[in-house]
Design goal:
The structure holds two protein chains of two kinds.
Chain A (H helix, E strand, L loop, with lengths): L3 E10 L1 H16 L5 E7 L3 E4 L10 H6 L4 E3 L7 E3 L3 E9 L7 H18 L5 E2 L5 E3 L2 E4 L1 E6 L2 E9 L4 H6 L6 H14 L7 H16 L2 E4 L4 H14 L2 H5 L15 E6 L2 E8 L2 E8 L2 E8 L7 H8 L7 H6 L2 H12 L7
Parallel strand pairs in A: 1-2, 1-12, 3-4
Antiparallel strand pairs in A: 2-6, 3-5, 6-11, 7-8, 8-9, 10-11, 13-14, 14-15, 15-16
Helix pairs in contact in A: 1-7, 3-6
Chain B lengths: L5 E4 L2 E4 L3 E3 L4 E7 L2 E6 L1 H5 L4 E6 L5 E2 L4 E7 L2 E6 L4 E6 L1 H5 L2 H5 L8 E5 L13 H17 L6
Antiparallel strand pairs in B: 1-2, 3-4, 4-5, 5-11, 6-8, 7-10, 8-9, 10-11
The chains are: A alpha+beta, B alpha+beta.
Chain lengths: 342, 154
């Protein structure tokens, strides 16, 4: 007997419910409910942060002043800005139905979405870094996680994208880094304004086919409704928003760079060390834009910036070493950034 | 702690001085008769992708075999660190929680995850791979599987 892919279109919801509804499904699927594909759209904008990420990555003052709620999700990824111009989808399966190797699991869960994008005329592909892209532009943000005994992957159809606001909600103290981040967002994050109803239909067909299931409209069970109500309370609590306990960095440890990932392989950072300040954007491992500040370069700052533009990040220290002691201090600031951990 | 002797299996380091849980890729090192250190083997790490974050249940938490004792995030996927034994968490590796890369760089040493007392000093270790030959056979077979499935590069 062919099993069912339950499909639930939640329509427009409050920011809180646009998170808790699909988190609630994970508890139902854990308890034996069918694999579920769901859709929702926030009726008002908000900011959402991944399970492990620090709340200090979000400009909370700006969010308060602009009535943007900040919510922490149970799945991965960084802080993101969500609004009505984005249709969110979530695919939720029993954990036993998903490969234990994460990259394999992500590929399995993302490929049907790629198929759906292509069905509606968007030439999407899944790149080696498991981003859904058109060319080198990311067109779908995603995050995944295991919640209880279910695995859920969420993503979005970006019909419109407010790059300015998406950059503005991030806590970025350095104006140069803020500018670099916004420029990279404009270049590497793109909307694909297709008919959302067609996209939803394509998603349902694609996931049902890929999983060997028959799609059928469904609704939340009693257990799931109870879970959603409990999650409503949890997600609004200060303790949940604060995130999992993180140990304080050891005494004397060098402060880490402020890093912002725009898409896989594309990020910015700002760092200060021993009086040297760096703000740089990194694209595919090489420095693109850079702003250096350090005493003692005697008018050679612009020359140092030119010298490292376009070179691989791992070569920066060697090049800056040619600028004497100030260059070595700048190089030490560069070392505090680490691409892979974003 | 003494320096770990490693063998290399198709490019992956394998420590034979400890036990392994075949499904979760967790290693278990007996440090005292009823106390263990738990970490993740290099295949478990490799198949996760670059480790972005690790978080652990607090010291004093109860451990149940097959249930999470923390969370691991890699490739924007948050998933459970599954305990291979039952007992109580005695220590967590704060250094790994601050820098998950430590677990990648030194999975058998400074990148350990938690230490725990065992609820049953002998029973909890049954079912784990212990013998050097069976550990090597299991690791080799798993590696071949992952390469065949394309999860790990050839």
């Amino acid at each position: 007997m062919v099993e069912t892919l339950r499909v639930i279109d939640f329509g427009e919801n409050s920011p809180l419910r646009s998170q808790t509804l699909w988190h609630g499904i994970a508890y139902g699927v854990s308890a034996g409910e069918a694999a579920t594909l769901s859709f929702t759209r926030p009726v008002t904008p908000y900011v959402c942060i991944g399970y492990h990420r620090g709340i200090d990555e979000v400009d909370q003052d700006y969010c308060r002043q602009n009535a943007l709620p900040v919510l922490r999700r149970m799945v991965g990824g960084g802080p993101v800005y969500l609004d009505k111009g984005q249709l969110f989808f979530q695919i939720c399966l029993a954990a036993r139905a998903v490969p234990a190797a994460r990259r394999q699991a992500l590929r399995m869960l993302l490929e049907p979405a790629v198929t759906a994008f292509r069905t509606v005329g968007v030439p999407a592909s899944l790149d080696d870094e498991l981003e859904i892209c058109v060319g080198d532009r990311k067109i779908c943000g995603h995050g995944a996680g295991q919640i209880d005994d279910a695995v859920v992957l969420c993503g979005n159809l970006i019909e419109t994208f407010d790059h300015d606001r998406a950059a503005r909600v991030l806590a970025i103290a350095d104006p140069a880094q803020r500018g670099q981040t916004l420029a990279l967002m404009r270049r590497f994050v793109a909307a694909t304004p297709v008919d959302p109803a067609r996209f939803q239909a394509a998603m349902i067909s694609s996931y049902a086919a890929a999983l060997g299931l028959v799609a059928a409209a469904g609704e939340l069970t009693g257990l799931e409704r109870t879970a959603v109500e409990e999650l409503d309370e949890k997600f609004e609590s200060a303790a949940w928003l604060a995130g999992p306990d993180r140990p304080a960095p050891r005494a004397g440890a060098e402060p880490r760079a402020r890093q912002v990932k725009v898409r896989a392989g594309v990020w910015t950072f700002a760092a200060k060390r021993d009086g040297a300040e760096v703000a740089a954007s990194i694209v595919r491992g090489s420095v693109e834009q850079v702003r250096l500040r350090v005493g003692g370069l005697n008018g050679s700052t612009r020359e140092a910036e030119r010298a490292i533009r376009g070179i691989p990040l791992h070569s920066v220290a060697q090049v800056l070493g040619g600028f004497g002691e100030p260059g070595r201090r700048l190089a030490a600031a560069f070392v505090t950034a680490e691409a892979g951990r974003l | 702690m003494e320096r770990t002797e490693l063998v290399i299996v198709s490019g992956f380091a394998l420590a034979l001085d400890r036990r392994y849980h075949a499904e979760t890729h967790m290693w278990v090192l007996l440090t005292e008769p009823d106390r263990v250190r738990i970490g993740m083997d290099p295949l478990g790490i490799e198949t996760s992708g670059t480790l972005a974050q690790l978080s652990f249940d607090p010291v004093g938490s109860e451990l149940t075999a097959g249930r999470p004792f923390g969370q691991l995030e890699a490739a924007k996927f948050v998933g459970p660190l599954v305990s291979p034994v039952s007992g109580t968490v005695l220590a967590v590796n704060d250094a790994a929680a601050v820098d998950a890369g430590l677990t990648e760089r030194d999975p058998y040493g400074s990148g350990w995850l938690i230490e725990a007392s065992l609820s049953d000093a002998t029973g909890e270790l049954q079912g784990l791979l212990e013998n050097a030959a069976e550990i090597t056979t299991w690791f080799t077979a798993k590696l071949a599987d992952y390469r065949r499935m394309g999860v790990i590069a050839q």
